[in-house]
Amino acid sequence: MRESVPAELLERCRRGDESAWAELVRATHREVYTLCLRILRNPDDAAEATQDAYVRAWKGLKSFRGEASFTTWLYRVASNAAISKQRSRKRRREHEVTSDDKMLALLPSEESTEGRAGVRAELETLEQALRALPEHYRSAVVLRDVYGMSINEIAERLAISESAAKVRVHRGRKKLKEMVFPS
């Protein structure tokens, strides 16, 4: 997430300015929702976790110390909200919406239709493999490889030791590799 929150806006939010808070939410919503969606894999759950994240952030804003950037702090709040949502679900939902078209739009354009179809097939294979990973591996891999969190941050977010976080990232990547590139 880019640092898109000016210090002046953040200070207005800390003073309780609701219009400033609405502006802050508009500036960060897409990234927060995307993070929650990648962890939860369900748009409805991601929307709920996003809302929970903003409620928690609003309540905790006065305690934000500024040791990290605001967006880094907000990422942590959002990932915690998503992981809490994930843990509280009693059953998994089978229906998932993938964003292949959105991901394809981010990739450089291929010249041929065959090239685009190949990229789409590779993305679909990767998404399926990611969905098939056990939750504890998927969360660790997404936080590390998609959002660039450190092992220490992952350990904090998942409430596990650093060595357990390293193991989950390593094993998750290994399982993904096996699924995407079977021997």
Summarize the topology.
Blueprint: H1 7-14, H2 18-40, H3 43-60, H4 70-88, H5 100-106, H6 113-132, H7 135-146, H8 151-158, H9 162-180
Helix pairs in contact: 1-2, 2-3, 2-4, 3-4, 5-6, 6-9, 7-9, 8-9
Features:
Arc Repressor Mutant, subunit A; 9 helices; mainly alpha; single chain; 2 domains; 183 residues; Rna Polymerase Sigma Factor, Chain: A
Structure overview:
The radius of gyration is 18 Å and the shape is globular. About 7% of the residues have low confidence. By secondary structure, it is mainly α. The longest helix is centred in the first third of the chain and has 23 residues. It folds into two domains: 82 residues, Rna Polymerase Sigma Factor, Chain: A (Orthogonal Bundle), CATH 1.10.1740; 68 residues, Arc Repressor Mutant, subunit A (Orthogonal Bundle), CATH 1.10.10.10. It starts with 6 loop residues before the first helix and ends with a helix. α2 packs across α4, α3 packs across α4 and α5 crosses α6. It is built from nine helices and no strands.
